[in-house]
Amino acid sequence: MAGLAPKRLMKELTEIQSKGTPEGIVLLSADDMKEWVFLISVLGEETIYKGETFALRMRFGNRYPIEVPEVTFLATEQYQPPLHPHVYSNGHICASILGTEWSPVLNAVAICITMQSMLASNKKKERPEGNDRYVRTAPSNPKLTRWHYDDDTV
Amino acid sequence: MSSDGENDDFFFEDEYDDASDQGEMMEDIDSTSEPDVYDALSPALEEAPQRKPYDVTWKVKTLQEIIDMQNKEITKIQSVLEVPASSAAILLRHYVWNSEKLQEQFWNDPAFALNEAGLSPPSSPSTRTIPLPQSPSRRSNRSIRSGPSSPIRRTRSVVTSGPFECPICCMEFDQQAINKHTYSMGCGHRFCRDCWTEYLSGKIKSEGESAKIQCMESGCGRIVREEVIDELVEKDISKRYHNLLNAAFVADSPNLRWCPHPNCEFIIECSQAPSRMLNQIVPTVGCKCGHDLCFGCGYAASHRPVLCKIVKLWEKKCADDSETSNWLQANTKECTKCQSTIEKNGGCNHMTCKKCKWEFCWVCMGPWTEHGTAWYQCNRFDEKSGIDARDNQAKSRASLERYLHYFNRWANHELSAKLDAEFYQKTEKKMEQMQNSGNLSWIEVQFAKQAVDAVIKARTTLKWSYCMAFYLKRNNMTELFEDNQRDLERAVENLGYLLEQNISDTESISKLRQDITNQAAYVQKRHDILMDDTLKGYLERRWEFTVDI
């Protein structure tokens, strides 16, 4: 099963290229079958993220999609992670879909849609509790963090 | 299987032949009922000759017996609820093997109970009974009932004519290959077998999951059944899966505990030590591997007479760096200028920091220049800030001294216990010597080994008695406890001394033998008194601790 990820990602890429991505989601780069970056913005007038664009980076392992990809918001000079109670300032995201709730039938675009709706439903711009402590000690790969999912509202 | 039309609605079976495993279950009934009769007659029930009120009874079980226990429960539920064996197993695991609760919930609302346990009705058409592609009538009928559970995306599990593409790896399978190379459970989510294998192997091998492995579809809670896993994964992984299932069963059963000793695969069954009782009993049990353990907390030796909770506190305290910092606080001060830690181990109060050359007074911590010519006495000693600082230090020192008093004694016995093997070896040599030079028979020199047994046993108890004493409140009861402790300590020391004696002199052997035998009996007696009194004390609520138990 060594060749699982490339074939599947190629298929996803072809689909994105032929059918496009949902509104507010743009594939910024997919240079190889290891790392893709999407741009995400929230649609509508209601959102607190109006006019903001975020970069979502996905790193795919060999066992993708059986294994969940490593997903973070980019924290660079150009892009900042969104101010959101589930997003740490280093770009790590606390979302069950990126952990226990991951299913191999999900794909890169599905992750983008989930992130977009997670942002859309948020009403308060704030960092998660304990952000500073987490960011100081966090591993570079968020998959190594043991997340505890306790809030389904945003 | 039930032909009852109503019930049929709830069972959306996975693609698996149930007839065969029902046959197996019938055989299992015979094999599981047998040990019951056997147990009553067998000596497996380990009971002390005279059972004390603080002792517990227990059985040592083999892995096979644990498997039989599960099968027996499964068979029972299978016939009561009229569900297939594999469904019964999934239900039982979900309800943590609480069959009363399971039955109550099931009869209350069967669909809910099945759904909760991960035997959900299909959220998309079932593929069990209808060959692909499915008949349209069936499809519409099912889809009315089931809304998509995942808001994000549905798998394309509705297979229309034409090739099937696995939604995970995107491989295509033509009609002839579908049954051979793809698989879907009762929930109808179809994937290729290679993806299933990869997924299941990963769950079992890297995540250590067993009873809760769900369908690969997002949001589908359907639990993958044992037979399916066995069929789809490699043999060694399937073996690990079953080990994990058994481990989960033992972990879920308050009456079971694995023997914690390395390479021991026995399981202890004990129903008399539920966790609420652990504030009054210390359920030490013996495994067939020859070692003791505590059924209450899994400690890999007897920790009698100390309660499990106190043992935990003690271990944490001993491992905790806080004791080191306590020592630092009690014995050191910081240079007020460069913050280097200084231990003063003699000399006068005029300190010169080795690092920054700052001169200060050890007593009041003020700069030395303010002290004038009072070289050996700090005349600023009575100022309030100085008093407070010194009070804190005194308290910290007293608490440390108290801890060290008990810890040193505890550690001393712990160390002795580690030298057990050496002690036995030395004694064995002496026993040989006695047989050779003293004309004693093998059986006549066994007294020495018995004496060593008594010493080791007493030392273990003494070790824990110091942990106990550390947490006891000072009162009359505690004084009695410490009297008993002291008597045992002395008796053990005397016996240890006798065992160290040289036996070169043939004349003295018989006297030494007499002395050792007597002293060993005395040690045993003192040991039993301390143990008996302490354990009874819990039941009589005689002991008061400085911590909540």
Automatic annotation (TrEMBL), chain A:
Keywords, alphabetical:
Ubl conjugation pathway
Every copy of the UBC core domain together lies at 4-154
Task: Extract the SUPFAM superfamilies matched here.
Answer: UBC-like
Source organism's superkingdom? Answer: Eukaryota
Q: Which InterPro entries match?
A: Ub_conjugating_enzyme, UBC, UBQ-conjugating_enzyme/RWD
Which Pfam families does the entry link to?
UQ_con
From the Swiss-Prot or TrEMBL record, give the protein name: UBC core domain-containing protein
Automatic annotation (TrEMBL), chain B:
In the Enzyme Commission scheme, what number(s) does this protein have? Answer: 2.3.2.31
Give the residue ranges for region: Disordered.
1-36, 117-156
A matching Pfam family: zf-C3HC4
Catalysed reaction(s) here are: [E2 ubiquitin-conjugating enzyme]-S-ubiquitinyl-L-cysteine + [acceptor protein]-L-lysine = [E2 ubiquitin-conjugating enzyme]-L-cysteine + [acceptor protein]-N(6)-ubiquitinyl-L-lysine
Sorted UniProt keywords? Metal-binding, Repeat, Transferase, Ubl conjugation pathway, Zinc, Zinc-finger
Feature: compositional bias, Low complexity: 135-152
* PROSITE patterns associated with the record: TRIAD (PS51873), ZF_RING_2 (PS50089)
Domain RING-type per the UniProt entry, residue ranges: 162-382, 166-215
Its recorded name reads RBR-type E3 ubiquitin transferase
